[in-house]
Known about the structure:
Layout: H1 7-18, H2 35-38, E1 48-50, H3 56-65, E2 70-81, E3 87-90, E4 96-103, E5 109-118, E6 124-128, E7 135-139, E8 150-151, E9 155-156, E10 159-166, E11 174-183, E12 205-206, H4 216-219, E13 222-229, E14 232-240, E15 251-254, H5 256-259, H6 264-267, E16 271-274, E17 291-294, E18 296-302, E19 312-317, E20 328-329, E21 332-333, E22 342-346, E23 354-358, E24 363-365, E25 375-378, E26 398-400, E27 406-413, E28 426-430, H7 431-436, H8 447-450, E29 459-460, E30 463-464, E31 476-479, E32 486-491, E33 500-505, E34 511-517, E35 524-528, E36 535-542, E37 547-554
Parallel strand pairs: 1-4
Antiparallel strand pairs: 2-11, 2-14, 3-4, 4-10, 5-8, 5-9, 5-11, 6-7, 6-10, 12-23, 13-14, 13-16, 14-15, 15-19, 16-17, 18-19, 20-30, 21-29, 22-23, 24-25, 25-28, 26-27, 27-28, 31-32, 32-35, 33-34, 33-36, 36-37
Amino acid sequence: MRIFPSKISFLLFCLMIAAAPKMLTAQLNQGGFPRSFTFSIPPDNRDMVTLTPPSRELLDEEDAISPLPFRFAINLPVDVDIERSGKWIKVEDGTKVWRITVNAPGALALTLYFDRFQLPTDGKFFVYSPNRTQLIGAFTNLNNNEANTFATALITGDQITLEYNSPEDAVLPQLHLSEVAYAYRGVTDVSGDRTGFGAAGKCEVNVNCSEGASWQRQVRSIARVEVKRGSSSVWCSGSLVNNTRNDGTPYLLTADHCGKLSTPQDLSQWLIYFNYQGAGCPNPTREPVSRTMTGVKLVAHGGDGGNTGSDFFLVRLLSSIPDTFNVYYNGWSRDTIPSPSGVSLHHPQGDIKKISTYTSPLVRSNWNSQPRYTHWRVTWAGTTHGHGTTEGGSSGSPLYNNLGLLVGTLTGGDSSCDSANLNKPDYYGMFYYHWDRNGTDSASVLKYWLDPVNSNVMNCNGWALGVQEPELTSGITVFPNPVTNRVNLRYSSEPAIRKQEIRITDIWGKILWSGNWNPLTEIEITIDLTGLATGMYILMIGDGESRTARKIIKL
Length: 555
């Protein structure tokens, strides 16, 4: 079917691309535009649900009493169901379009929480700001999970439009919006005030300053975690952690005081933001794009929020992490010998990723007057670009020893960018204590999960999942790119390389085509992509020992 039958239509399409909405987060989606954009259907304010904003004065009083973890949003109940809310229209190509707008006056940003979410194979769901400057989607049946829940990454502003597109006679999805996270601080304020992005203390050091040069693998493990827990949402930090099988099980480690109040449904609606960091050392002027995943499941936790133990919370992501995220799984050490130096990587105030450095040995300590030594006490040092500390939002972040291994997770402390507090200590639950001392069963210790082969090792190295995009194996060229129907691989160098395994995957890592290629007998091969939809794909080439990749754009 030709969508643009005339030169005038093509010009309108080019103008639409030029004014394309900003993708604030690369939440796993299939891309594209809603039909209301394509056919220039104006917003309809009659299809709007308006929420009563919370009392900011009351929220400030509550936050002063309980500053940690860092609450940034209150979750307001709502009842929006696709079968009885919003409005349906049919557009020129026969597609049915359902839309409704949620209005939450005064909110800095909004997250949508769905307690029923199951999309059929032919449906596409989008969310966007009513002025169409921010867009997330299309979400499809690939976003369905075992809990039948979903959550959308934050969109700034106090209004958000939901749109569902489907063929005329398609089965209706299950789509019920039950709560909206009303962010009142800790996110980007479109009015220009700095909260969230840019809100960390001025002493904090960005991870791409010189202080982070030796820690770039570990930087890839760090996530900003939007924790849903009942009627509120909080910012915490977490990190991916390796296991002795090196199998890429998507375990994320954070603090028990972050997650212990989350129900199983809440956990299925957590949002995990990877790669939320500045590209260089100076603070960026624009908020960076992150890569976001939805939903986790509790594996083990211990320490009653640090009150009786070491305060760890281990979850498993509900979906596999795509290779294209280029993440790293932290190695760890359960040694009790204090590290002489190291760092912590974290998201203070929900801001971009920061690094704090210590140069004096860790000290075994208790926490909150409990008698057992469950925590490492650390004092931060000044460095070339600042004097990193921790803040609200840093909770659950990893502490590394001088060998780059994870040895603790943040519970709390007194450090801050206030000059009087720069040298006050912080406390990290000891990985040693996480391992097997918070309880006796698999639900309260780490060892059953992070040592599945029962090796009883004291240390485990990190493990990298990901691909490096710029270069393929030497001597291989890929053309054309972008591609219309067929892409060619040609080998033109000596000495000859070994037999190669070729894969084409989508952004989720799902294999769409695979085959083998022996350049010794076949200089060039052609791969037919005719059956694939337009969009971005990953060409992966490996010989059993190494693997490289190239992005392919299908027109």
